[in-house]
Structure formats: C-alpha cells, structure tokens
Write a structure and sequence with these properties.
2 domains, Aspartate Aminotransferase, domain 1, Aspartate Aminotransferase, domain 2, binds pyridoxal-5'-phosphate, 400 residues, 34% helix, alpha/beta, 13 helices
C-alpha cells in the first residue's frame, strides 16, 4: 500500500480549502456582536429546531465529541466503556474517545462506501458497548434512523457526528431531518475543511434533556484537564511528515480548552449568515465531472450533503503519480483517510480485519471543489484533470 502523502504543489494555486475572508476580518473596527456565544446558541437552535440551552458551543468538534462521550459514561451505571468508531475517519474522532477515558472499537465500512452500515457497526458492538459514533463523511450519510432504533433497543447511545454534514441549513427537503438531529447527541465542527468554515469551533447538540447536567459536569472536567495540559506546555508539536502512516503515529494535540471563545462564535455566526456555497460547489463539481479523463471516475455521493471535496476513484498504483501531475499544475489533492488501524497507536482497537476500508482508501483521490473557487482556479483544475495521464511502465513510480 502506497502511504505517501500526496505531493504538495510547489506553487499552490488551487488549495483544497481557502475560504474567503470574513467581513469582520476586513473591518477590524467593526463592533463585536453582543453576547456572541448566546447568539450562536440561539441561531444553531433555530436551525436545528432545538432550544438554545441544548446547544453547547465548544473549542472544536473533537471537544464536543469528547464532552458528549464523557457525559454518556457518567450517565451509565453498568460501567460500559467501549465506543464504536469507523476505522476510516479522521484521528480527532478516535482521540475524542481516548480523551473521554473510553476504549475505542474500530469498525469497517459498508461495501464500497466511505461510511459504515448497520451490519458493520453491529459487528463491532458487544456487552461493553456504550456508544456508537456515526460520522457521516465524504458526502456519504449514515442511515441514522435505522441505526438509532437498533442501538436504542440494546441500550447503546448513538452520536450523530455531523462535523462534515452540517451546512447551516435545517435541510427541510431531506426527510432524514437536519444533520446532527438524530441519536442522543449531535456533534458539529466549524474548523478547517468543514462546510461552515470558521477555522475553529464546534458544538454539542443535546437531544436527550436528561443528559444536560452530565454534559455540564463532563465539560467542566475536560476543560480543567485540557487547560492544565496546555498551561503546562505539554501540547505536542507535530513534525512535518511525508508519509501518512507515520503521521498517524503522532496524534494531534488535545484542545487547549473545552469552550468556544467569543471571537470564534462571532466568526461562526458570520459564516452562518453568509448564505450557502453549496450551489456554487455543485456547479464546480459538474464542470470537473465533465473534464474527467478515463483514468479517474467520479465517486458516488449523496447530493443532499455539502461538498467538501470532489472525490474520484483511480487505480491505486497510479494515485501518487496522478497527484504529482496535479501538484505540478498547482492543484492540491488529498488522500483521506488512511484507516486508523494502519498505525501502531490505533491498531490495538481493531478487533478483526477491516477489509472494506482497506480496499476503499488506496483508490480515493480528493480534489478542490468548494464554491468559493474563482473562475481561473476552476479552469486550472479542469485543465489539470483533462491532461492527467496514466504513468507508463518506464515512468511508473516504484511502490515503497
Ligand atoms: C467526522 C468528524 N468528526 C469530528 C471531527 C473533529 O472536528 P475538529 O477538527 O473541529 O476537532 C472531524 C474533523 O475533521 C471530523 O471529520
């Protein structure tokens, strides 16, 4: 398996994620919104049809997930400590389980989809299962209604992790309801690469009101621990890696605190008020799809979900060479996600083989498609895609 990172363009002309500046960044003298945290709770509550007190703004999505999981552990009287998470996910998800003092159990994906289905989740559950983290990623939605009914019948809590699915809309046209609206708790993120891209911030959405006091206890507990760690300067600095497997051995640092700061809340509110880039992203994707050469096929996706990347499928042996051609044209690409069980840090949490994630990862190549790309950036990606060519035997790169 070729685990090299995709090469970064020497001259980065089309980044995967470069949101336009916010008006408040451009006008430093602009008055701050009064009570931005309370205003954000009100706005998110309105969008998600929840009371404002059910929204807990956090420093990031990982903090929201860790606080939610810790609250579930405090609520549990049977000492259950296992949390099922997809092996095909960003490391912040599994780190949140560890932050909460719980034991992750890695599960596989549905066949040829970037998210697990019910059989994949069920295979990873057992008597010690406390919760399932249902993270809808790469524009694929987990069927939460069926999963939640199945899990509730077994006393297992589902967390609707909508870090990549919440686009600021109540999604009235989707019968499955808004993102983050199912299960016992919902998780939002406003960090980099997310649909509402404020650079930081997250939120926990409490669906089961009886959990609220335990969420507050968990939040205070984790906040104290994270502040102490960050004051002690224990946050690990990550070196620069060229290999994604090696990077996974070095986990991202824990958040510096649990709570969202008012400036971040102001930024999130501003992004929510901007309108949606979704329609523009759809048009970019249609242009890219038209330009695809035979060596790259578009991946299936759920059109109701926001588009963070244009995902194509390529021959695994060609992926790095194709990414190199894109980088030479100034176009950034990504390889998300090397399944977590490929690192020695997370391997102990896989109970058995994870064949679907292993088969999917090597053929995925993700390209820029956000709605804020300029016409010249779009032309650049289209041109780079149209001129991709499969490396010949003489030029094909050796597999490490
Ligand atoms: C599905 C999912 N959940 C949670 C997170 C963590 O969010 P944050 O980066 O804001 O901590 C991420 C981050 O990429 C994610 O993709």
């Amino acid at each position: 398996m070729d685990t090299r990172y995709n090469p970064h363009p020497r001259e980065l002309l089309v980044p995967l994620c470069q949101p336009p500046a916010l008006a408040l960044d451009l006008a430093p003298g602009a008055p701050e919104i009064r009570g931005p945290i309370a205003a954000l709770c009100g706005e998110l509550g309105r969008i998600l049809a929840r009371p404002p007190e059910s929204i807990v703004p956090t420093a990031c999505g990982r903090a929201a997930l860790a606080v939610g999981l810790r609250a579930l552990a405090l609520a549990d009287t049977d000492g259950r400590d296992e949390v099922v998470v997809p092996s095909f996910a960003c490391p912040q998800v599994i780190e949140a389980v560890l932050d909460a003092g719980l034991r992750p159990v890695l599960c596989d994906l549905a066949p040829d989809r970037p998210v697990p289905d019910l059989p994949a989740f069920a295979a990873a559950t057992g008597e010690r299962s406390l919760a399932i983290v249902a993270a809808s990623v790469l524009r694929a939605k987990i069927e939460l209604e069926a999963l939640d009914a199945w899990a509730r019948a077994r006393g297992i809590c589902v967390i609707d992790d909508a870090a990549q699915a919440f686009d600021g809309r109540g999604s009235t046209d989707d019968p499955r309801g808004p993102a983050a609206s199912r299960g016992s708790l919902g998780v939002l993120s406003f960090g980099r690469h997310k649909p509402i891209c404020a650079g930081a911030g997250g939120a926990l959405v409490i669906h089961d009101a009886s959990l609220a006091p335990l969420v507050e206890r968990a939040r205070a507990e984790l906040d104290a621990r994270w502040r102490q760690t960050s004051l002690a300067g224990d946050a690990r600095r990550r070196p620069w890696f060229t290999d994604v497997r090696e990077a996974l051995e070095h986990p991202p640092a824990a958040p510096a605190r649990a709570d969202m700061d008012p400036t971040t809340a102001t930024r999130v509110l501003a992004r929510l008020g901007e309108g949606h880039e979704l329609d523009a992203a759809r048009r970019v994707s249609a242009e890219l799809a038209d330009a695809l050469p035979a060596c790259a096929r578009p991946r299936p996706h759920d059109p109701a979900l926001p588009q963070l990347y244009f995902a194509v499928e390529v021959e695994p042996a060609h992926r790095h060479a194709l990414a190199t051609q894109l980088a030479a044209a100034g176009v950034e690409s990504s390889w998300l996600y090397l399944p977590l069980h490929h690192s020695s840090r997370y391997r102990p949490y896989a109970r058995g083989p994870v064949p679907e994630a292993d088969a999917l990862w090597p053929k995925l190549l993700l390209l820029p498609t956000r709605g804020w790309l300029t016409p010249s950036q779009r032309r650049r990606v289209v041109g780079a895609l149209a001129s991709l060519s499969i490396p010949g035997p003489a030029t094909r790169e050796a597999q490490p």
